[in-house]
Design a protein that fits this description.
By secondary structure, the protein is mainly alpha-helical. The protein has 5 helices and 2 strands; from the N terminus they run H-H-H-H-E-E-H. Pfam families: DinB_2 (PF12867).
C-alpha cells in the first residue's frame, strides 16, 4: 500500500469542508506549498537575487507567489486592492535586502497566504462561481471561478520557474 504522504496532494482525496468544484484549486495550492517548502529548505538567502541569463530571480518568485495569490483572492471577493497590497506589488521586484532568515520568512508568508486562500475557498458558495468580477483598475471582466482557477494556475507556473531557477543558481 502506498503511503498517502508520498502521493501528490490531489491523489490524497477530498479536503474536508472544501466545496467539490474548488477541490482542484485547493489541491494545487497545497501542492505548491509542499514543493516550495521542500525546495527552499536549505536555499541560501544570498542566492535570492541571482538572475541567471536574465530570468526572474528566486526572490522575485517567492514574493510574487504570495502577492499575486492575495491580489487574485481579493478580486474574487469583489474587493479593491488596499494601499498595503499596492505597496507589496511595487516591492516584488528585487534586489531584496536579505539576511539569514529571508528565505524562511518568504516561505512562511506564502504558507500563510495559502491558508488564507483555502479559508476563502471553503467559504465560497459554489452557486457564486459564475458571478462576474472585475480585475484591476480597468475592471477587466472575469468571474469568481476564473480568478480562483487563475490563482492556482499562476501559482503553479511561478513554482515551476522558481524551482528551475533555484537549481541553476545553486549549481553555480
Amino acid at each position: 500500500m502506498t503511503n498517502p504522504e508520498t502521493l501528490e496532494v490531489w491523489l490524497r482525496g477530498p479536503l474536508p469542508d472544501m466545496p467539490a468544484l474548488l477541490q482542484p484549486i485547493a489541491h494545487a495550492l497545497l501542492q505548491a506549498r509542499e514543493e516550495l517548502t521542500a525546495a527552499m529548505h536549505d536555499f541560501p538567502s544570498e542566492l535570492l537575487n541571482k538572475r541567471p541569463s536574465g530570468v526572474a530571480s528566486v526572490g522575485f518568485h517567492l514574493q510574487h507567489l504570495s502577492g499575486v495569490l492575495d491580489r487574485l483572492c481579493t478580486y474574487a471577493r469583489a474587493g479593491a486592492l488596499s494601499e498595503t497590497q499596492l505597496a507589496a506589488l511595487g516591492a516584488e521586484n528585487p534586489p531584496l535586502q536579505v539576511n539569514a532568515d529571508t528565505v524562511t520568512q518568504l516561505v512562511q508568508r506564502f504558507s500563510l497566504q495559502v491558508d488564507a486562500a483555502l479559508a476563502q475557498l471553503r467559504a465560497t458558495p459554489e452557486n457564486t462561481l459564475t458571478e462576474p468580477r472585475g480585475v484591476g483598475r480597468a475592471q477587466i471582466p472575469s468571474t469568481v471561478i476564473g480568478l480562483l482557477v487563475h490563482a492556482a494556475e499562476h501559482t503553479q507556473r511561478h513554482m515551476g520557474q522558481l524551482l528551475v531557477t533555484a537549481r541553476v543558481v545553486a549549481a553555480d
